[in-house]
Amino acid sequence: MGIENRDDRTVWEDTEPEAGVTSSGEAAFSSDKEQAADAAPLARAAIALLRGVVFRDKDEALWQTVWKERVRLMDYFRVIGLQLYVDEADEYAYLRQDESSGLPRIMPRHPLGFSLSMMLVTLRKKLGEFDAARGDARLIVTRDDLALSLRPYFPPVTNETQFLMRVDRDIQQAVQMGFLEPAGAEAAYAVRPLLRSFVTAEWLRDFEARLKEYEAYGQQDGGEEAGK
């Protein structure tokens, strides 16, 4: 842009910059583009975390961004009352609500039904036993294994198909929540380490005190209907 005096008037007009000279506007625009390009991976990581869990084996590039920028991400999310949890060993990251922040809740609560709660507890106990015995291998469970383990906690049913349909429904919910992953074989699933963060040892201790209550529930005709 050049400035020229014409008949005592000042005229602003766009002109080609001299060779080798970059206008301040072009420099600013270039700088803005560079900043936007630098910020894009960070923004993508923040959006992905707001949507759910980030797993390294699902998106290597995204995981690398979360890992490298974890301090900046933590600072950002802290402002809006969220905590970033990054597990380096098991290679996943997710957000949880900071209940002490006093800010409105962002992360929604998802109340769990009785059957899904029992499935997650069963999986967590199996994972703990497996960790102690096998170390770094993956725990694989089948639908039949889970059905057998869950059977004592539910009322007797005359329709086995209805019970297995409920087991299938809860398995799919566990997959959607990131706790199970199809393992290739039909009706076989790998238990993801994320489950440890959700069903903690403290939570399990509290739940143990209620297991007898649930076992009693399983013997009652007035409990949860199998077809629900």
In short:
Helix content is 50%, strand content 15%. The chain is an alpha+beta fold.
Can you describe what's shown?
With 228 residues, the protein is α+β, with helices and mostly antiparallel strands. The chain folds into two domains: 2-97, no CATH class; 114-218, Arc Repressor Mutant, subunit A (Orthogonal Bundle). The chain is built from nine helices and eight strands. It has helices spanning 24-51, 60-68, 70-79, 114-134, 143-150, 160-176, 194-198, 201-208, 211-218; strands at 2-6, 9-13, 54-55, 82-87, 92-97, 140-142, 180-182, 188-191. The protein has a three-stranded antiparallel sheet. Helix 4 (114-134) packs across helix 6 (160-176). The protein is globular and about 60 Å long.
Give the CA-CA distance, first to last residue: 72 Å
Q: What is the strand arrangement across the widest sheet?
A: 3-5-4
User: Which parts are unreliable, with pLDDT below 50 for 5 consecutive residues or more?
Assistant: 1-23, 25-30, 221-228
Q: What count of structural domains? A: 2
Q: Could you say which structural class the secondary elements and strand pairing correspond to? A: alpha+beta
Backbone CA Rg: 28 Å
On the 0 to 100 scale, the average pLDDT is: 78
Number of helices: 9
Q: Total strand count, please?
A: 8
Which term fits the overall shape? globular
Biggest beta-sheet profile? 3 strands, antiparallel
Strand/helix succession: EEHEHHEEHEHHEEHHH
CATH topology grouping of the largest domain: Arc Repressor Mutant, subunit A
CATH class of the largest domain: Mainly Alpha
Helix content: 40-55%
The amount of beta strand, in percent, is 5-15%
- Named CATH architecture of the largest domain: Orthogonal Bundle
